[in-house]
Specification:
Shape: elongated
Strand content: 15-25%
Number of strands: 11
Helix content: 25-40%
Low-confidence stretches: 1-29, 31-37, 420-426
Order of helices and strands: EEHHHHHHHHHHHHHEEEEEHEHEEE
Largest sheet: 9 strands, mixed
Structural class: alpha+beta
């Protein structure tokens, strides 16, 4: 099965993720055939080539496709007899046709673009198992061996699927990559020559049109902390909890922060094997979003709201009244000194709806909208980033008619409502 995920932030990106039947087997290894015909006993091959895999502190090649939950060690026991009997009992070994054994198929599965080191390890593992199974399948005592011992991963399939690297990457794309435009000016190699001159190449952690490379770069450069997710630099710097030359890009508890935490917390839980049952898995977000270059500005914002977070939710007029779900949103601290608030909009949609499929175009249909405004006046988001702004934070609403053009210089300008009642505005 082939999934294509396309996004247009900061540029058009097409990410192909292939798995299952699309995986290609590793190339046949002549070393396995040579070992199988060398006259070595199955036990000798097991002790020399299989036990070292079990005893190694390094992860197996399974880690290239599974962040956690699956390791080749799960399919090996301390004795040859128990290992072979368990594999046969689980129907992972075909005694009559060893090369068709499922355990070899599992080992030889590889991603579309395998890591060179993991690919080498994969070939070595496949060769070791092929050599041992070829010899073991000819041993009458091993063929007759029985065991009640289970073999393979101990966690359920739902958890294994959740931690598969293609799904981890899909989550990264949805929660962090779609926001990469916020960081591009300082961290994208096509735009940050000044920053590179001042701070070095490590500042360029974004990989152009490459979400997988960007995710790996962030992990390798320590921007994501799997031990203490809340202390990840990708959170601490843009919220200015530590020095950040790029200024404030988000605040604790806003929509972007929530999305970043959704990925980072989930990544940390998988990395440390905290998911043991399907009930442990985090619920899927009911809403998807995508940052656009459509700007909204409010003028005459009361100075008393200076530096407080304002959230604007946009609802479109339909044949049946205002849309039940918001079609766009934006949140950012108010610049009270200038009596204004402005920020780019993020299109939002319920997951698996027609509008969710359309937001990739980054266009908000022109027409009449109701904008509901919420302000975090009590610091509830800083106290609990899971919190949401609701009726108790509502400060007013305003109706706007706009073409919603893209571009900072074409932003839709609205007057801040003076009362809680709806007011009509014509966008400037």
């Amino acid at each position: 099965m082939l999934r294509i995920i396309c996004f247009s932030v900061p540029a058009v990106v097409c990410l192909s993720i292939s798995f299952g039947a699309a995986n290609q087997a590793a190339e046949p290894n002549e070393e396995a055939a040579a070992a199988a015909s060398s006259g070595d006993s199955a036990l000798a091959v097991f002790e020399r080539r299989i036990l070292p895999i079990l005893q190694s502190a390094k992860p197996s090649s399974c880690a290239e496709c599974h962040l956690s939950g699956v390791d080749l060690k799960d399919y090996i026991r301390s004795t040859q007899r128990e290992t072979f009997a368990a594999l046969v009992s689980a129907k992972l070994v075909d005694i009559e046709h060893v090369d068709k054994s499922k355990i070899l198929e599992f080992i030889e599965r590889r991603p579309e673009k395998p890591n060179l080191i993991s690919d080498k390890v994969r070939r070595e593992e496949a060769a070791a198992f092929r050599a041992w199974l070829t010899a073991a399948a000819k041993d009458p005592e091993l063929q007759a061996a029985k065991t009640e011992v289970a073999i393979g991963p101990t966690i359920p399939p739902e958890v294994i699927r959740h931690a598969r690297t293609d799904r981890v990457l899909a989550s990264f794309v949805e929660n962090i990559w779609t926001e990469a435009g916020r960081c591009a000016a300082c961290h994208s190699p096509d735009r940050n020559q000044k920053q590179v001159e001042e701070h070095g190449e490590q500042v360029s952690w974004i990989r152009l049109n490459d979400p997988a490379g960007t995710m790996n770069s962030m992990i390798e450069n320590g921007l994501i902390d799997a031990d203490e997710p809340e202390h990840s630099l990708i959170l601490m710097k843009p919220t200015q909890q530590v020095e950040h030359g790029g200024g404030q890009k988000m605040v604790v508890g806003d929509r972007t922060y929530k999305q970043f935490r959704r990925f980072i917390d989930d990544y940390a839980a998988m990395k440390h094997g905290r998911y043991q049952t399907a009930k442990d898995l985090p619920p899927e977000s009911g809403e998807v979003s995508l940052v656009t270059d459509i700007w909204l500005k409010f003028e005459n914002v009361p100075a008393k709201f200076d530096k407080l977070l304002l959230q604007a939710d946009l609802f479109r007029m339909t044949d049946h009244g205002w849309s039940k779900q918001r079609m766009a949103t934006s949140d950012r601290p108010i610049f009270g000194g200038g009596n204004l608030w402005q920020h780019s909009l993020s299109l939002t949609a319920e997951r698996n709806t027609a509008w969710a499929d359309q937001i990739e175009k980054q266009q908000l249909p022109p027409g009449r909208y109701l904008i509901k405004l919420y302000i975090d006046q009590n610091g509830k988001l800083a106290k609990d980033y899971h919190a949401i702004l609701n009726d108790e934070d509502f400060v007013g609403q305003v109706e706007v008619d706009s073409e919603w053009p893209a571009g900072y210089g074409k932003m839709t300008i609205v007057q801040f409502p003076l009362t809680d009642s709806a007011e009509s505005n014509s966008a400037q």
